[in-house]
Specification:
Largest sheet: 5 strands, antiparallel
Helix content: 25-40%
Number of domains: 5
Strand order of the largest sheet: 5-4-3-6-7
Radius of gyration: 28 Å
Distance between the termini: 52 Å
Number of helices: 22
């Protein structure tokens, strides 16, 4: 670096244009990201970390470490490139794109760009040094024969696969592990001294000691033997390791929670509003073990007063404790069939924090005043101590309020008046929700019933009754109030953000609707109400489920972010998760922000700043996806096992998705999905039309699209691949969908 550059006052931390922002967050602020980029731009050449430190006169050991971390984060986020000479350089080429790698079992892959643009195809050659979920920077090198952008790897920014779960094989002097994760095509080579006691054919966990390169496969060592293939419960153990789900409590945490007792200490109840005589009740599923929320409703001259009491998890999980670090690492509880990996230890999740009946519990309360039209006129938050007066289930409440079950009414006569008021309020708020345009893509969820040796006995639909909808409505209202409260206080916060459809998806949607003689109002910015008007207008059409499915798939996935982008699906300007802090870390962050305000503190003294919330939002969103993927893997495996003895049987089903290689069918009676491959559709060439979501035969003109009723035969079941193949027996023409099958296709986005 030249003498002039070194002395240039522009690059002093005191001259940093973002110095104030950095000072609010750090006691000893270092150069901001923007200022670092300015330095590299001014330099006109790559710089080593020591040169960057010298330019900013950074010589303190702690500050040097902070600089190292910042540069590493900028590299990970694609702002900087760390070259082979160990220098940092700017990334300013429009053809360089940063994103997450998505692997495929056939060896190729895709890069999912951070900027939300279309995925880039990565050939098997480009995937050689990569594993699924790595982060990379790629260069656009052209367009492939399918019209997709094709990329070449410039730099691997972050390795995110550190262990592989799979079956161990010993052949011809080589020992290797075939990954259970089908998005990883490479086998993992195992050194002879890294096999341990693992035996041929066993399910093992291999730690990757050397990541793959262009020339060779990844190399690993066996760190755990899970057991024999197909052993009961093995599918969950495999999913936990495959997705690297934290599932063991660190020793530091166990020591930290030793002083906790089963009862809330009296000292913790001081200076809180006493709601122990208020008949708050919990309403949950029959198999629920942790109770986050309790509700109470009272009629007022102008409408209703609603109390939504939420477990005060933030009282017990203090910032930067071992408990907090582990909760952040997990971000969410993971719910497998008949097994849960909780975010918090059981003494908290099922004990001290859970709003169990007839025991004192600490809570954070959202008090809402709602008028005759179902509009919230006023709300406030406060800390309280409560005592749940009843543990009710959705089934019980629905039988009481909807069916008028006399036995249950007699059993719960003390809470009955309050339940009726809750129901009256819900019906009014439901109308208000519909008028607002909030979307409600109903779904037919299923539940797996196990028999002996944890074998599936049957798969049954779960009924979403008015009690489910009642609690959902009140939780949404409390979440909305939390976001509004924190916005008014100008607090750093983590919101639940749901973007509307992208321009590309919207164009495809309108093309699809146009072919059906339909249109979506709202121009380039359709509102949720425009969506709901369309859904209402087509509800009596035979293809209504197809239209609803395509409408749903046009929207984005909800994520956590501090940016005030609103929640499209709920038709809200701001929305936060407040009501489930036992099982979701974002809710815990919202509680901390609310308590910070209730204590009279200013936003700038909050321990978290906006950049922290960006990082935490990305972490929580990624861990939410991780949990969903792990759960999906387990359910897919279990359903495959369930279908093993049904090969050759014929079932009615409905087409749930159409692709270029065939279509997926969901069996109407047993809620299992499988593939009818395009090669099994008869003597014809079929062309895939992504806009109309259909396959069309070139010679016969036969069409297969979402929602069509078909008869299929189970032809193949692979537990290893977690795939089921069907053969087409008959396409039903003119048949109307069954109620069960139709509902099961309508997938609802997470709120």
């Amino acid at each position: 670096m030249t003498s002039k550059s070194k002395k240039d006052a522009t690059f002093s931390t005191k001259k940093d244009p973002y110095r104030q922002r950095e000072a609010e967050k750090y006691e000893q602020p270092i150069a901001s990201r923007e200022h670092i980029l300015q330095l590299l731009g001014h330099s006109g050449k790559p710089l080593r970390r020591t040169e960057i430190a010298e330019a900013f006169s950074i010589d303190d050991e702690d500050q040097l470490e902070a600089l190292r971390r910042r540069l590493r984060a900028m590299e990970r986020d694609g702002q900087l490139l760390f070259n082979r000479s160990q220098q940092y350089c700017l990334v300013n080429n429009k053809d360089l794109i940063v994103g997450r790698v998505l692997g495929h079992s056939d060896g190729f892959g895709f890069l999912k760009p951070d900027d939300g643009s279309d995925d880039l195809f990565l050939s098997p050659r480009e995937m050689n040094p990569l594993l699924h979920n790595d982060r990379a920077m790629v260069r656009i090198v052209g367009i492939d024969r399918k019209g997709r952008r094709e990329g070449a790897v410039v730099e691997i920014l972050e390795r995110n696969t550190h262990q592989i779960v799979g079956r161990l094989y010993k052949e011809d002097g080589f020992t290797y592990v075939v990954p259970e994760q089908k998005n990883i095509a490479q086998t993992v080579l195992i050194h002879q001294d890294g096999v341990g006691k693992a035996k041929q054919g066993q399910i093992v966990v291999a730690e990757i000691v050397e990541q793959p390169t262009k020339q060779r496969q990844p190399i690993g060592r066996i760190i755990e033997v899970l057991g024999d293939h197909l052993a009961p419960g093995m599918e969950i153990e495999m999913a936990i390791r495959s997705h690297e789900l934290p599932h063991l409590w660190p020793e530091e945490l166990l020591e930290e929670i030793k002083p906790l007792t089963a009862e809330v200490p009296e000292s913790a109840k001081a200076d809180r509003t006493d709601l122990r005589k208020t008949p708050l009740v919990t309403i949950d599923g029959e198999d629920a073990r942790d109770f986050d929320d309790a509700v109470f409703c009272q009629k007022t001259p102008k409408g209703w007063k609603l109390l939504v009491a939420i477990a005060d998890v933030s009282h017990y999980v203090r910032i930067n404790t071992a408990l907090d670090k582990e909760a952040q690492k997990r971000s969410t509880s993971v719910y497998f069939p008949e097994q849960v990996i909780p975010m918090l230890p059981e003494i908290l999740s099922n004990g001290l924090c859970s709003l169990n009946p007839e025991v004192d519990r600490l809570c954070m309360v959202c008090e809402l005043f709602i008028d005759q039209e179902g509009q919230v006129t006023k709300s406030r938050f406060f800390e309280a101590v409560m005592r749940s007066h009843a543990r009710l289930t959705y089934t019980e409440v629905a039988k009481i309020l909807v069916d008028g079950d006399k036995d249950l009414i007699a059993k719960h006569k003390l809470t009955l008046p309050h339940l009726k008021q809750l129901y009256d309020l819900y019906k009014v708020m439901r109308v208000s929700r519909e008028q607002r345009g909030a979307m409600d893509f109903d779904t037919q969820e299923t539940r797996i019933i196990f028999g002996a040796d944890r074998k599936i006995e049957k798969i049954v639909p779960t009924v979403r009754n008015d009690a489910h909808k009642l609690i959902e409505e009140f939780m949404i209202t409390a979440n909305m109030a939390a976001a509004k409260f924190l916005n008014a206080k100008k607090m750093p916060k983590l919101l639940r953000v749901h973007d509307g459809p992208s321009a590309d998806k919207l164009m495809n949607l309108k093309t699809f609707l146009g072919e059906l003689g339909l249109s979506l109002d709202g121009g380039d910015k359709p509102t949720p109400l425009d969506y709901m008007f369309l859904i209402e207008s087509v509800k009596d059409r035979a293809d209504s489920h197809l239209i609803q499915t395509v409408l749903l798939r046009s929207m984005s996935q909800a994520v956590y972010s501090p940016e005030l982008k609103g929640h499209f699906g709920l038709a809200l300007d701001a929305y936060a998760h407040f009501t489930s802090p036992i099982r979701r870390y974002p809710d815990l962050l919202v509680h901390r922000a609310i308590r910070h305000c209730l204590q009279g503190n200013k936003p700038e003294t909050f321990v978290y700043g906006f950049p922290d919330m960006i990082t935490l939002g990305e972490l929580c969103s990624a861990n939410e996806r991780r949990a969903d993927d792990a759960t999906r893997d387990v359910v897919s495996w279990l359903k495959c096992e369930y279908m093993m003895d049904k090969i050759g049987e014929v079932f009615p089903g409905i087409i749930s998705a159409v692709t270029s290689f065939g279509f997926f069918v969901e069996l109407a009676e047993i809620y299992v999905e499988g593939l009818v491959h395009i090669s099994n559709l008869g003597q014809d060439y079929y062309h895939f039309d992504p806009t109309s979501h259909q396959l069309k035969g070139e010679r016969t003109g036969s069409k297969f699209r979402i929602g069509d009723n078909v008869m299929v035969k189970v032809s193949r079941v692979s537990l290893d691949d977690k795939k089921i193949d069907f053969d087409l027996v008959l396409k039903k023409t003119g048949a109307k969908k069954t109620e069960a099958a139709g509902k099961s296709i309508r997938k609802r986005r997470k709120k």
